[in-house]
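Database export, one record per block. Field names are fixed; values are copied verbatim from the stored entry.
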Amino acid sequence: MKKIFNLLIVAGLLTCLSACHRSYTVYGSLPVDGAEGAKVYLRNITDGNMMDSTTVTNNEFMFKGKANQQQIVSVLAVTPTGQYVSNIVLENGDIHINLVNDSLYGTDMNNLYFNSFTADTTAARLESMLKDLTSKYYTCTTPEEQVAVAADYGVAMSAYEAYKLEQNRRVYKQNKDNIIGAYALSELVNLQDESMTFHKLDSIMSHSGKAINDFEPLRMARKWLFNIDNTSEGKKFVDIDGIDFATGEPTKLSNMLNKDQITLLDFWASWCGPCRKEISENLVRLYNKYNDKGLNIIGIDVWDKIPDHKKAVEDLGITYPQLIDTTKTSTDNYGINGIPSILLLDKDGKIIKRNIRGEAIETAIVEALEIK
């Protein structure tokens, strides 16, 4: 009877231990002046949406909940003197984080995340250097000083980006079967690792386990690389639904193409300074110069408001067709993460050149039109 009783106790303890890990508690600290009453948020790193919020009391805060699966989230604190943000692995168990010195410990994955990323002294040194150079730039008193600091910043940023690529490659190789490796792999895409093509990532994910394939940022990264590959040079253009600015009627990009002309697609917005400069210095001139020789230009207005677009068209003297992207999907479908983004299509709608700017635009047009 005593033996059975002991077995029941052991079973009860195991049940209790299991139950104790069916929820998470994030114990946070924010030891800075002015933190009292500040809001702290748990934020989804995939879409930036707020998942939970709390308030700082006596320089501390707490989140409680249940994690159905592991995910990496950011902890963001907003104080009167600034913002503090750091990532954690949201999983059941006790998690401890300090938003000032970025210390993180508790569960196995959080210990691993800290040791893989946050505790990296080289990355921290380069980040500190970039921060110092940014502050120094805004305290410069002459243009010459600003140019010198900007040059130093460029060198430091190149070193930082190169190191982050190396760091994430190393972390992925050491963690191919967990969420830390999944995060590192997604960061390689975000850092624009040229070796991380769609086909390579697709092959990796096809031969990987659940931790890799269930990581939402990585699934989004795979889709992003697919869209870039699908609209790369040599591929057919992807159609865009929108409104013809000239008529105000719904239409498609395919309806605005002319089979007797090559077409330059300019993804832009009225609020984008570099977009406006490219139009005023190059595109209007090139349209007037080569339109009767076989060039069409179509502006694809993205992330914009129609009244603002109308004013910009008038101010810039644009006379070539404009397509308003009403679905807000064209940049995603073309793998574009910044504007202006300019592509050149041949008469059959095949992409000849991608990501061309400045003098390279006219060079590509002359070559495509076979003008000597």
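Remark 1: The chain has three domains: 18-104, 122-230, 241-369.
Remark 2: DSSP finds 13 helices and 15 strands in the chain.
End of record.
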